[in-house]
Specification:
There is one protein chain. The chain is of the alpha/beta class and about 325 residues long. It has three domains: about 45 residues, lambda repressor-like DNA-binding domains (434 Repressor (Amino-terminal Domain), Orthogonal Bundle); about 130 residues, 3-Layer(aba) Sandwich (Rossmann fold); about 130 residues, Response regulator (Rossmann fold, 3-Layer(aba) Sandwich). About 40% of the residues lie in helices and about 15% in strands. A six-stranded parallel beta sheet has the order 2-1-3-4-5-11, sandwiched between helices. Strands 7-6-8-9-10-12 form a six-stranded mixed beta sheet, sandwiched between helices. The longest helix has 18 residues.
């Protein structure tokens, strides 16, 4: 069956192709009767805009790519998912489509099956990048090709990149401070992979808080490589069986589920025998048993600022660099 063109729709409606285009793009320069007539024909015939042809003609696709690190096949967490949902919402308000692509920060970007091939060939206008690391190949690739992008995270190697991040040093610092102020003496901090800047930055804040408040070093109480709830379960059991611990500070609320199970299996009570503090304030953390005390990262602001900055970059002829640090805060519930 022949694919319907904009000229075919115009002929059926008795108007010009330009008028059909105005209806499709929701232009105000079309009277209501004509709009309804054209829209009815579009609906009845199932006509679809050829996005690729439209993009090539306008040199703009109104598509952005969201890159999330592969995390060794684990891909993204609930926190990633909640922010991506808000990015999709913010992008849609600005008439942009969102494409999600797995990526890796540790290897050269040569694959032809991910979002980088779309950017390289002009099928997307810009990118939002999660999970940055030092010597990130993805950042190098995007900078060299002058593709607009915003990092959700931090870039400590380049001064011309834009990013939106939570103040992760403060996340570690206020977490440790909150634990100490509650009277807990021996907390252990469980973090993800050491390669990610976010984890190293949080660990620095945690260590500095203990050094300033208690004049003590706590390096031995920091554990990396806790990538999911299974890792957290195994690590929590090992830590509790071999150390005198009264508090666990866990980077990533969903990983806390593993710690909860380990604590209960050892016959301990959360909030009485051992305190648990999370990071992220994912929606389900309020429904843990007991409800999780956690450090909130403002997901709405992450999405709003990253999309806004990226749109500004994509629609500007001059270089734009904007860097925003968001403030974390403790959400106190029943796990401490």
């Amino acid at each position: 069956m022949k694919r319907l063109t904009i000229k075919d729709v115009a002929t059926l409606a008795g108007v010009s192709p330009r008028t059909v285009s105005r209806v499709i793009n929701d232009s105000i320069n079309v009277n209501e009767a004509t709009r309804e007539k054209v829209q009815k024909i579009i609906n009845d015939t199932g006509y679809e805009v050829n996005i690729l042809a439209k993009g090539l003609k306008q040199q703009k696709t109104n598509a952005i790519i969201v890159f999330i690190d592969e995390h060794q096949g684990g891909y993204w967490s609930i926190w990633h998912n909640e922010i991506v949902n808000k990015i999709i919402f913010e992008a849609k308000k600005k008439n942009y489509r969102t494409i999600i692509s797995a990526s890796t920060a540790r290897e050269s970007v040569y694959t032809a099956i991910d979002g980088f091939s779309l950017l390289k060939n002009g099928f997307a206008d810009g990118a939002i990048l999660f999970d940055s690391v030092e010597n990130d190949y993805r950042i190098k690739y995007l900078r060299e090709r002058e593709i607009p992008f915003v990092i959700i995270g931090k870039d400590i190697e380049n001064r011309d990149t834009s990013f939106v991040d939570c103040d992760n040093y403060k996340v570690g610092y206020i977490g440790a401070e909150f634990i100490m102020n509650k009277g807990y003496k021996n907390a252990h901090f469980l973090l993800g992979e050491i390669d990610f800047l976010v984890n190293k930055t949080r660990a620095e804040g945690f260590k500095d808080a203990y050094k300033e408040h208690l004049d003590s070093r706590i390096d031995q109480n920091i554990h990396y490589g806790i990538s999911d709830f299974r890792d957290c379960y195994n690590s929590t059991k090992k830590i509790l069986e071999s150390n005198k611990v009264d508090a666990l500070f866990i980077s990533g609320d969903e990983r806390v589920l593993g710690a909860y199970r380990a604590i209960e299996e050892l016959g301990l009570k959360i909030g009485r025998d051992i305190a648990v503090l999370g990071i992220d304030n994912i929606q389900m953390s309020e429904y843990f048993s007991p409800p999780l005390t956690t450090i909130d990262q403002p997901k709405e602001k992450f999405a709003k600022y990253s999309v806004s900055i990226l749109c500004e970059m994509m629609n500007s002829d001059i270089g734009i660099t904007k860097r925003i640090l968001l403030k974390p805060k403790v959400i106190e519930r029943k796990s401490m």
